[in-house]
Amino acid sequence: MSVLVFGSVNTDLVFALPGLPAPGETVLSPRHAMLPGGKGANQAVAAARDGAPTAFAGAVGEDALAEVALSGLRDAGVDLARLAWVAAPTACAAVLVDPAGRNQIAVGSGANREARAAQVEAAALSPGTLLLLQMEVPAAENAALIRRARAGGARVLLNLAPAAPLPADVLGALDLLIANEHEAAWLGTQLGCGASAPALHRALGVPVAVTLGEAGAEAATAAGVIATPAFPVRAVDTTGAGDAWCGVLAASLDRGLPLAAAMRRASAAAALACTRTGAAMPRAAETERLLSSTP
Where on this chain does K(+) bind (predicted)? Predict the structure, then answer.
C-alpha cells in the first residue's frame, strides 16, 4: 500500500507577532522564518514521517522559492516523480502568528493553479493506493482525479480545505471527507443541513470526519459515530496542525488501522505540530511517545 498526495506546495514566510494586525494596522515582527509549506506538501510530509511510502503530485515554478518549498518533501523522502515545473511562480504564503498560536494566512497560489490531474498516471490509481487531496489546487482537477481514482479502485480521502464547491457525484465518490469546523459549517450551509459529522454524513452518504481543534475530532460512518479527544499541549503555532492530522490519518489508514485508532494517532500528531513554529510535521517516534504517555 502507499499514499499519493495531489495538492499544493508553498514557501511559507512565517512572522511571529505580539498580536495579529487589525485592518490597516502594521505590526512589527521580532523574528521571521522562511519554511516549506502548502497543505498538499505538508500532508505528504506528515504521511511520510509517519512511515507511509508517500508520493506527491503538484507544481512549482522555476524560481528560488521552489527549492525552499520542496525541501520538506525531499527531507521526508517523498517521491517527486509526478512534480511539474511550470512558468508560474512558486506559491508563497504569509503566515502571521500571535503568542497564543493563533494565525492569519494569505496565500499567493501561483504554480498551484497549474497542478493537473494528468500528472498522475492511471497505474498509480490502483486498489493499492490511498489518494489524499485538498482544495488549494483547481477544483476541476481534483474532481477529475477523484473520478479516475474511483474508477481505478484507489481509496480516496479529501480534505475540504479551504472550502470550495465540488460536484455531488465527486463528493459521493469519497471514502472519507475531512473538514474542520469552519469548513463543515460552510458545507452544511451548501447542503442545507447541520455542520456536525453525523449531519454531513447523512446528507452526503459518505463517511465524514470533522476536526474541532481543542475539542478533538468526530467522525460519522455507516457503523456509527467516533469521537476522539484532543491531546493537551501548550500551543506555540497552530499552523499545519490540520495537515498533520490529515497526513497521519492517511498513513494510519494505509497500513490498516481502523478509523478510530487512526483518528487517535492523527490527533496526537496534530497536537505535536502545535508545539513548534511553522508547519512542522512530527515523526512517527514522537507521535508514538505521546500516544504511549497519554491514557
Answer: 237, 239, 273, 276, 278
Q: Is residue 157 part of a domain?
A: yes
In a domain? residue 106: no
278 marked among binding-site residues = yes
Q: Please report whether residue 104 resides in a domain.
A: no
DSSP per position, 18-80 = SSPPPTT-----SEEEEEEE-HHHHHHHHHHHTT--EEEE-EEESSHHHHHHHHHHHHTT-B-
Task: Note the pLDDT of residue 112.
Answer: 98
Q: Quick check: 273 and 241 in contact, CB under 8 A?
A: yes
Dihedral, CA of residue 111, residue 49, residue 64 and residue 84, to nearest 10: -40
- Kindly report the CATH number assigned to the domain that includes residue 195: 3.40.1190.20
Query: Is residue 67 a known part of a binding site?
Result: no
So what's the pLDDT on residue 50?
A: 98
Q: Against a cut of 0.70, is the pTM above it?
A: yes
| 86 Cβ contact list (under 8 Å, min separation 6) | 59, 60, 61, 62, 111, 114
Give per-residue pLDDT as tens, 6-33.
999 999 998 999 999 999 999 999 888 8
In the annotation, is 254 catalytic?
no
Q: How many domains does the chain have?
A: 1
Name the catalytic one among 75, 79, 98, 243.
Answer: 243
Does the annotation flag 90 for ligand binding? no
